[in-house]
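Worked example 2:
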Amino acid sequence: MIHSNLTGYDQLMAGNCLAKEMDMITIRTEEPADYPTVHVINEQAFGQPAEADLVDTLRTVCPEYLSLVAAIERQVVGHILFTPVTTQDAGNASKGMGLAPMAVLPEFQRQGVGSALVEHGLARLRADGCPFVIVLGHPEYYPRFGFQPASRFDLRCQWDGVPDAAFMVQALAAGALDGIEGVVRYRDEFDTAM
């Protein structure tokens, strides 16, 4: 709702402008025609080919993934990928998803594209019944979406030297992390990118 001293008509027009501004970013499921563009987006966003090559590999070897793209006026400018992760402790194994990588073309960064990708991806996974999502990322960025340090839930990263604040988790349902602890493992393909 918009609160201001504008008349009803002006409020309606201001609301429409705000809606149009937010509607500029379209999030949709990645399609095969997007693969070359997604490769370029990841390569440019990370300044190296490792993440782009990882995405290409995961598409072919991982049957369970969620890959979304962000478009502005039909130009694909961002990408996010979620793939399965598992936790393993003494007797239990649990499965969730890992967010990685997320990339936006440099000229479209800091315009809400990444946020739209993360929010849409989490909503899709929540609707699909995914219990939790792990991310290894910037501790200043991901908490705004509800991510917390995974160590608070006795979850540890499989790779040594990862700062505690950078390894985060979000439960997508109440109690989803109850009884889950131990080492979180990504697919083996991630070892080449680390």
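The two ends are 44 Å apart (CA to CA). The chain has one domain: 25-192.
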